[in-house]
Each structure stands twice: as structure tokens, then as C-alpha cells.
Amino acid sequence: MYTQSFNVQDGQAAAPAPAVALAENAAAQAKFDAKINADDKIEPQDWMPDNYRKTLVRQISQHAHSEIVGMLPEGNWISRAPSLKRKAILIAKVQDEGGHGLYLYSAAETLGTSRDQMLEGLHSGRAKYSSIFNYPTLTWADVGVIGWLVDGAAIMNQIPLCRCSYGPYARAMIRVCKEESFHQRQGYEALLVMMQGTAAQKAMVQDAVNRWWWKCLAMFGPPDSDSPNSDQAMRWGIKRISNDDLRQKFVDATVPQAKVLGISLPDPDLKWNEQRQHYDFGAIDWDEFWATVNGNGPCNKERLATRVKAHNDGQWVREAALAYASKHRAVAHKEAA
Ligand SMILES: [Fe+2]
Ligand SMILES: [Fe+2]
After folding, report:
1. For residue 185, which ligand has an atom nearest its CA?
2. 97 C-alpha vs ligand 2 centroid, how far in Å?
3. What are the phi and psi torsion angles at 154 (to 5°)?
4. Residues lining ligand 1 (ion), CB within 5 A?
5. Which ligand is nearest to the CA of 175?
6. Alpha helix locations (H) across the chain?
7. Is the pLDDT of residue 334 over 60?
8. Are 95 and 39 in contact (CB under 8 A)?
9. What is the 258 CA–ligand 2 centroid distance (Å)?
10. Does the structure show a pLDDT above 70 at 290?
11. Residue 93 CA to ligand 1 centre (angstroms)
12. Most buried residue, 187, 191, 223, 275, by most Cβ within 10 Å?
């Protein structure tokens, strides 16, 4: 999934990114500017301003972390899926999220930061990931709602990233978005089936929607008036649509889907505004959002501990893969000699 609240500062620092450093090489800066202005792609071998590189490393690595931590809340339900069909779909989806993490770590590595450095940031708790994964998945309906709303919000965020100015990120996002579309549809379809079931099933779906709706609106990140990094990211062609505009698009697209499902969205202020030709909606609890981003959500500690354990448990696999590769290199070397 899942940005883009995801250009928030890592670690404790809350200060905005420093102003763009003056390029030592004016010709290189001019060439970079011309490419950005022409909407061309910047590639790994191209000169780029330090802050453009840093912004991308931060955003892409936070995005990668979000993908792999995002495997955990739904992974909890693989062994408890209600049928073989639902289990197969959920395994495929969770595996896709692992793949998204891999594409994104690879894209970030082209900027000169190693995967080990990025993972160290995640495992030490310094690096951020999407706050949405720090909430528990209490019932099977949560799996459907995550597909419909969380992956739905992710698609809204990520489609503009297919046009990001940094080539490797933009290209990774094309495949990611195709897979996210499957994630959203499988979630919605699972909910449609439950909404044709018993009263208890319908109540379970409504309860899950009530718990996830506001958290999904916060996934688009702080209001534009409170997003100090957004303007620069827009000028660089990293970010194409503002947080508030994406949030509005998501609400406008989701309300009709909720009507088809037959559930209500937990917002008394949600209503069509004829003048704006958009839905109005109520205020988001940003204190809760920031508390969760900063490590105090209900599952932050559990998610991080699970991730660190999985990484440590996989150490022998990495060592075996390296030993295998080195053995084959030695054989190839001997044959070539
Ligand atoms: Fe994903
Ligand atoms: Fe997804």
C-alpha cells in the first residue's frame, strides 16, 4: 500500500527540511531544472540536488516500510480465513505487499542508500511507516474493510506517484497500482458477500467500517495548511496532488460505494454540497494521528517487535543465499579460467 501521509520526518526531529542547497554546479542544476520543467524523468545516474535525493530516500523508504509492516495486520488472519478461497486470496494479497516492499527498497537503493541502512532505521524505531498499520484487526470484516478502504486510499495516493519525476519510483508504482486495484476489489467483494449474509455479519461489517473510516481519511496526511514539505515536493514533481485534494477525491469516490454496500459512514457531517460538487465531511482527530505516528498507537510496539523478530529469524536465509551465490561465483570463475 500505502503512502502518503508518508513524507513526515523520521525520528524525533519535527523541523521542516532545510531550504534547497545551492548547487555547486550551476550547469548541472540548470539541466536538472530543465528536466523537471519539461516533466522528464530523473534517473539514478543524473545529477540531482541533495535535498531532492534525501526527500526521495525518506519517502520511498517510508513507503517500503509501510508495505512490509502492512503485511502484519492482515497476515494475522491467514490462518483464520473463513474458506479456502478467502485464504488463497488473502495469501496472494499479503504476498503482493511483500513484493511492493521489495520493489520500493530496490528503487530507494538506486539513490545510494543500502537496504541494511533503511531496515536499521525501521527496526530501531527511527524511521516512520504508515500509521494505519498500528491498529488491530479485530474481526474478519476488518480484512475486507482494509482492502476496500485502506487499499482504496492507497490507490488514490499512489496513482499520481506513477508520474513522479524520479524514474525508478514512478516505474515501480505502475505495477504496485495494478496490484492495489486487485486488493481493493477483493476487499469490497468480501464485504458485499457479508452484507448479503446474517444480521451478525452485517453488524460486523458496520463495526469494522466505524473503526477504520476516520483512520483512512488521516492516511492522506495532515491538511495542506500544515504540510510544510508539500510545496517543494510539488515543485520537484514528486508529489502531484495535495493531501486535501486526494482526501476529497477519496471521500467522493467512496460514499457511493458505501451506499451500494448498504453501510453507513460514521460521520454526521458527511453530506453532498451542491455548490462545491463534492461531499463535505467532519473534522479529523489529528492528535490521535500524531500520537500513533509518534509511536503511541495501540499496536506500534507489537508491529515493530514482530518485524524485528521476522528479520532476525530470516538471518540464516540471507546467509544461505549469500553462500550459495558465492559458491556459484567460484564455480563460474573456475570454468572461465
Ligand atoms: Fe501495497
Ligand atoms: Fe495493498
Report:
1. 2
2. 6
3. -60, -40
4. 1, 67, 97, 100
5. 1
6. 26-37, 50-69, 71-75, 84-109, 115-123, 140-145, 151-158, 167-195, 199-218, 230-235, 243-261, 286-291, 300-313, 315-336
7. yes
8. no
9. 20
10. yes
11. 8
12. 191
Work out the average pLDDT over 26-52: 95
> In this structure, what C-alpha cell is assigned to residue 210?
466505524
What type of residue is 20?
V
Q: How far is the CA of 32 from the centre of ligand 2 (A)?
A: 33
Coil, strand or helix at 10: coil
Positive or negative torsion for Cα 279, 283, 285, 289: positive
Q: Per residue in 9-38, pLDDT tens?
A: 565 444 444 455 555 688 999 999 999 999
Please list all protein residues whose beta carbon sits less than 5 angstroms from ligand 2, which is an ion.
1, 151, 180, 183
Tally the residues of the chain: 337
Which ligand places an atom closest to the C-alpha of 90?
A: 2
Select the more confidently predicted residue: 2 or 158.
158
Nearest to 219, CA basis, from 125, 154, 264:
154
Q: How far is the CA of 180 from the centre of ligand 2 (A)?
A: 5
